[in-house]
Design brief:
311 residues, mainly beta, Immunoglobulin-like, six-stranded antiparallel sheet, rod-shaped
Length: 311
């Protein structure tokens, strides 16, 4: 009896799989055991060598638990993102901040991208401005997108600004799933764009809070005494910072000394710690009342009062 056995094993030469390091060589062979005419035989197959390709897979996630609240003139406000190398080889990613103009109700100044260098999960002076980040497989990094808010921003309270952080592989990152980049991977193996095409992005949101300071001025008179009442109140959202009220005294009138009050409490005319003062600008031949109210929350209300008389 003649028996012809041909045993060939092949895995196709190249593999790509998450969890197996890129450029890993996998060797496979098979053994066939059989009995013929009472005699046992064992046959070894050829040895198949397969090389694991590099899978390019990255994810970007916005980490802030809610919209980041900002006000006009704010400096270095931060959106926080996490980037993870889900591939099977070391990869370098380009980081790009993109403002979504079509969705945003206001725009911010030039944004800068920083990498958390000391792993404390907070933006601080130790963090470096970067355009790229390099990560090992399954390694993650924290990215801070930092911007300033224009002091003269023309937008309503609760307006939103949408900003994307995009990361894409410098090896591939075409955005096309399954795109092969010949000999671009670790050790010269082929690299393949995985889910997301070797790139990823996520959206963060700044929300604008505006506190509007409203001034209502009313003047009444009894005989030759004129009483000035200025009602100061804060509406909208957020905090009105470093509020200072100045009221110029008409040329035809004279301020009555020591008549300045804030919420029925007397203030001195001199420049001291109570925040109120009467000031004369001799060069301009002007006089004014000045009251510093500091930071005021929404809903705050104050009454400034002082008296004048005709010259």
């Amino acid at each position: 009896m003649k028996l012809l056995i041909v045993l060939i094993l092949s895995l196709g030469g190249l593999l790509h799989a998450k969890g197996v390091s890129a450029a890993t060589v996998i060797q496979n062979s098979a053994t066939l055991d059989f009995t013929m005419s009472g005699e046992t035989f064992s046959i070894e197959s050829n040895i198949d060598r397969s090389i694991v390709e590099q899978l390019l897979d990255v994810s970007v996630s916005w980490m802030d638990t809610s919209d980041v609240l900002v006000s006009r003139g704010d400096k270095k406000r931060v959106l926080t993102f996490k980037i993870v190398n889900n591939g099977n080889g070391k990869d370098r990613y380009t980081l790009i901040a993109k403002e979504e103009i079509s969705k945003s109700e206001f725009v911010t100044e030039v944004k800068k991208v920083y990498v958390d260098m000391n792993d404390n999960f907070q933006f601080d002076s130790n963090d470096n401005e970067r355009k790229t980040i390099t990560l090992e497989p399954d390694e993650e990094g924290l990215i801070f997108l930092v911007t300033n808010i224009d002091e003269d921003l023309n937008a309503s309270s609760l307006s939103k600004n949408f900003v994307n952080l995009e990361a894409f592989s410098r090896i591939g990152g075409s955005g096309e799933v399954g795109r092969v980049h010949l000999n671009r991977g670790i050790g010269g193996v082929d690299a393949i764009d995985g889910l997301g095409g070797g790139k990823s992005e996520d959206e963060g949101i700044f929300q604008l809070l505006i506190a509007n300071v409203i001034l209502d001025k009313n003047v009444t008179s009894v005989d030759d005494i004129f009483t000035v009442l200025i009602d100061v109140r804060v509406e909208g959202d957020g905090l009105a910072e470093s509020v200072k009220v100045e009221d110029q005294i008409p040329d035809e009138m004279i301020y009555i000394k020591n008549s300045l009050e804030l919420d029925d409490i007397s203030l001195t005319d001199t420049d001291d710690t109570d925040g109120g003062r009467y000031k004369r600008k001799y060069l301009q031949r002007k006089a004014l009342i000045e009251v510093e109210l500091g930071d005021l929350e929404v809903g705050s209300s104050h009454i400034i009062k002082y008296n004048l008389k005709l010259r």
